[in-house]
Design a protein that fits this description.
Number of domains: 2
Structural class: alpha+beta
CATH class of the largest domain: Alpha Beta
Number of helices: 12
Largest sheet: 9 strands, antiparallel
Oligomer: single chain
Shape: globular
Strand content: 25-35%
Number of strands: 22
Radius of gyration: 23 Å
Bound molecules: FE2/S2 (inorganic) cluster, fe (ii) ion
Helix content: 25-40%
Distance between the termini: 39 Å
CATH superfamily of the largest domain: Naphthalene 1,2-dioxygenase Alpha Subunit, Chain A, domain 1
């Protein structure tokens, strides 16, 4: 039998199929990536009032994020300290406290244990201070995006995002009234590895006119991508696929991106709203931002944002071949209701769970997973070398920049991924001491 190639080679131009299927790799990802990264949890617009909460996951760890009586966002692991049940089963809502359904142990919004109903029927002294929900101490926001980390020693979120902030600003600081998330996220499961949707949204622009050829083969979005498209790696592991138009490009061309056409397909009211935002953008964010039309963004490890359809995505790993995909619809908070409605329709038709693009992509990721699981091909890694070495610094844009067809976004992601999963982990310590 031939020796197996490394999981990721030196310049990440080859990535093993086992990266997507191996059970040991999956477990190491949980310990060394999901337990040590900043992970997206919620948008501040979902947690406006004291008592507002959402439930979610940090990797496989279930958590509650709640706006406490002190006004801060508190994140606690959603598992009762009595017997482990989730103390909150709702996706979101407004609560004064969380009451576990099994024996009604009762917790405050910040996770403190408040009451043990049957304690009065015994003579037991209970140290409630020691029996609160496990607190997630690191919770930080950027432009309304709330991230949390299970790693108490992680660097501040601002530093973690680094140059990615420039690209996030282009959307999340674009609208004078900010953005809001409407409704709970759509959620669905795909028979694929969690990295496949992530990789796609980091910069796989090249598949557009082929996989989505029925819409994109000859449309204006494809022409723009061919002429002005750039794949940016702001920091290794993060990514931003954008179009950078020449100075003086008209507002209608730049003001909204969509894979199935331009802003000209919208109603007059929506076009007028978007034009006004665009016309103020140079003054608001600077002249370079006014020339950028986004496509897709990614923050390491599992946050994606589809600029062109205004949707936040998170890939929640569940098994090597199972990902729960969560999808939040985002709109400008100050837009008229009809504009929000029109943007929602675009999302539903394109990237909602039954969206035309989403159907194509999900099928491709499932097929890629099946291809990755062919054991006889363990010695045949995937080629990620398109554009190798052509990425360069850019005079106007932070990060390394290549064309839309340069796969450096994936190489940078897998080099960071490899470094992380090869880093020392708790399980590697002979004395079993925590970090
Ligand atoms: S398991 Fe939660 S109160 Fe008993
Ligand atoms: Fe796609």
């Amino acid at each position: 039998m031939k020796p197996l190639p490394p999981l990721v080679n030196q310049d990440a131009s080859f990535v093993s199929r086992r990266v997507f299927t191996d059970g040991d790799v999956y477990r190491r990802e949980q310990q060394r990536i999901f337990a040590r990264s900043w992970l997206y949890l919620a948008h501040e617009s979902e947690l406006k009032e004291k008592g507002d909460f959402v439930t979610g996951f940090l990797g496989e760890t279930p958590v509650i994020a709640a706006r406490g009586q002190d006004g801060a966002i508190h994140v606690s692991v959603n598992s009762c300290t009595h017997r482990g049940l989730p103390v909150c089963r709702a996706e979101r809502g407004h609560a004064a406290r969380f009451i576990c359904p099994y024996h009604n142990w009762t917790y405050a919004l910040d996770g403190r244990l408040l009451a043990v109903p049957q304690q009065a029927l015994t003579h037991t002294q209970i140290d409630k201070g020691a029996l609160g929900l496990r607190r997630v101490t690191r919770v930080e926001s950027y432009r309304g995006l709330v991230f949390a980390s299970l790693d108490d020693g992680i660097q501040p979120l601002d530093q973690y995002l680094g140059n990615m902030r420039f690209y996030l600003d282009n959307y999340f600081d674009r609208f004078p009234g900010g953005v809001q998330v409407i409704g709970p996220p759509h959620k669905w499961r795909i028979a694929a590895n969690w990295k496949l949707p992530v990789e796609n949204q980091l910069g796989d622009v090249g598949h557009g006119p082929f996989l989505h050829g029925f819409i994109m083969r000859n449309n204006s979005a494809t022409t723009e991508i061919n002429e002005f498209g750039l794949n940016v790696v702001p920091e290794p592991g993060h990514g931003a696929a954008i179009r950078l138009f020449p100075e003086g490009t008209d507002s209608e061309t730049v003001m909204w991106g969509s894979e199935n056409g331009s802003a000209r397909m919208f109603s007059a009211e929506t076009q007028a709203y978007l034009r006004e935002v665009q016309d103020q953008l140079a003054g608001r964010l600077g002249p370079v931002h006014a020339r950028i039309k986004g496509l897709t963004f990614g923050v390491y490890p599992n946050f994606s944002f589809l600029w062109a359809n205004s949707v936040i995505r998170v890939s929640h790993p569940r098994a090597p071949g199972q990902v729960d995909y969560w999808s939040w619809w985002v709109v400008p908070a100050d837009a008229p209701p009809a504009v929000k409605c029109e943007l929602q329709s675009l999302y539903n038709a394109s990237f909602g769970p039954a969206g035309l693009f989403e159907q194509d992509d999900s099928e491709a990721w499932s097929q890629q997973y099946l291809g990755s699981a062919i054991e006889q091909l363990d010695d045949q890694p995937y080629f990620y070398g398109l554009g190798l070495g052509e990425e360069q610094p850019h005079p106007l844009l932070p990060g390394k920049v290549g064309t839309s067809f340069n796969e450096h976004y994936a190489r940078a992601f897998y080099l960071r991924w490899k470094r992380d999963i090869e880093s020392a982990g708790d399980d590697a310590r002979p004395d079993g001491e925590a970090r």
